[in-house]
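Structure catalogue
Derive tokens from sequence
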Amino acid sequence: MLLLWLLLLLLLVPLLAILWQQRSRGTRPCWLISLQHRVAWGMLGWAAAWQQWRLDWSTLNVGQSQQQALMWCLKKAQGSCCLPREDTDMRTFWNHLPLTQTSHTQEEESEETLPSPSSPWYHGDASLQATLLGLITLNKAYPEVLAPGSTACVTPTSPWPCSVPWLGHALGRVSPDGAKDPRTLLLEALISPGLRVLEARTAVELLDVFVGLEADGEELAEAIAAGILGTLLPKRAAELKEALEQGPRGLARRLWPKLQVVVTLDSGGQAEAVAALRVLWCQGLAFFSPAYAASGGVVALNLWPERPQGSYLLPPGVPFIELLPIKEGTQEEAASTLLLTDAQREKEYELVLTKHTSLTRCRLGDVVQVVGTYNQCPVVRFTCRLGQTLNVRGEVTDETVFSVALAQAVGQWPGAKLLDHVCVESSVLDSCEGSAPHYEVFVELRGLRNLSEENRDKLDHCLQEASAQYKSLRFRGSVGPAKVHLVRPGSFKVLREALAACSSSSCRPPEMPRVIRLRHLAQLLQKRVIS
């Protein structure tokens, strides 16, 4: 009987999809919208229940699940394989396949990019489970947020890591199927005052959307009033103008009074964008990420949308995950990797992924700290990326240390809100001639148009307080003071577009680098300095 119901649902969805496409936005009857939504959620419920059962079984039988994931990678490996595919145990696997490391050299930085959802990297258990279970848990945490017409995605790529054909119907998105133009997506969202969920691929991209909305708000309002989407909406255009006139703080709630949650995909370098959105445009809204996308693809899923700081489950399926211990007090790695069952609470590990496309054990550089367990699997939070470190005189200033110091410094700049930043070692720009090597720091701020020398010096003082090694080098004169440059609004959007243009993927890389090692990218920001 259950199989018959599932078969019926599978038969109905394509038919309903055709009916949907045959009707314009203004003429779709309510019964069709409601029926499509119910059918899609019926399918989602069945699929999510199956994935929840698989997840519970795999996390209760971690050793067996990881062995099966390893066998799957071996069977799917393309080309020649140096390992026996039938009876390979973990020890043989470790002995035959040495660790490789993600490179962060200047030549290879432009090639680092997170794959698009159509990439083979996303075809693992983690991405599918993150999508299906994430939707169910989000709906439970915030009832009615996924009702028909309550969701809008304002970026061409969705934050949900697995592409499911009927996902748009389950989410009740207001955007037309296949819409890829960012301006059209934003207009569709702006003319829908009843939104409860706002989606964007990443937080930095959503930040770009709001900054662009403020800059182009008058033009967008005129387009809405003129009926650019097929319907004249002068009242909504007036509401948009009024909301923008009151400034950025709380803008999302003024545009969409019923808005409850923002959904973005968590990945490296997103924390500052989330903080800026929380303080300004998305004040009072909850944030939810269905997954964590590390340097090598989706590796962890979020089952707890109500938790303010991202906690992610490392599942034992595909991709095959190992943990490389980080020595306490350093960023040096241990001699060998561990399996998920060997993870210890409060300890830090670097993630190691094995992909079936080339059968390599790749160190991702993403560091996690174990904060709990789900059955027998570790629940982690991501702390930093090993490749995002500064080193001009043998010191190691990691991403977290620098970000904390910068946040403390910005907190002492009257009226300033940090939107984005990157660092450049002085040798990249040849700016250390006649002076000690130092950090060049480019920041984009809201609320402050000029930086005094006193404010610039505060960052160097905060860095010395945060790092004893940096303080010692500064005291001896081996390292010069950090130099802070304020860039004009929109500079980091230009930087991200430049990163996308020089990457091997057609989609923008969601990871935001905090250390730039390519001279032409550093010079791009240097040309946009205003203070």
Remarks:
- Residues 30-60 form the longest helix (31 residues).
